[in-house]
Amino acid sequence: MFRTACSTLIRTSSTPSSSGWARYAALQQVLYPGRRLGALFLAYSSPDKQSALSNQFTADQVKHDSYARGFMFVGPDDDPDFVRSEARRLGADGFKVYHDRVPQADTWNADIPQYMPEWLAEIADGFLWLRPEIVAAGRTGGVSLDPTLIGIENLGSLKHSC
User: Fold this and answer.
1) What are the residue boundaries of the structural domains of the chain, listed by start?
2) Over 70: is that where the pLDDT of 6 sits?
3) How far, in Å, CA of 152 to CA of 28, rounded?
4) CA distances from 73 to 109, 128, 146 (A)
5) CA 72 → CA 13, 132, 153, distances in Å?
């Protein structure tokens, strides 16, 4: 059964002209026939200010099913009043903040408050989630998601925001 499902998935998953909830649900049914499907969606947008398009796309997709949830991409320079009203308009379930929104060359070493400002934590209190991307440059020059490398300041920032 699994081999047949994977074969079907590979055959049908050539690069689509568009994607979204319907395609995702159809492909998941190939792997898990008859199962109730739910998911958390976030359409990543590059830091070039295309978040509005990604956020609208996510909202348009999750409205198809009550088991689907969507995050709204937010940057530190966004207007708090706009974020609050847009989140309500879109029906966002939470927010996603990402280090690459910080205006510095080495975003991997950005401190959490640089991309997750206090005003966002306050707004997020009325929603389900606030999901920061916690990253740090590793000691060997690579990138690490190891919490012991993110620094005590960032751990303190997370504690304060919660």
Assistant:
1) 1-37, 39-161
2) no
3) 40
4) 20, 14, 23
5) 26, 12, 26
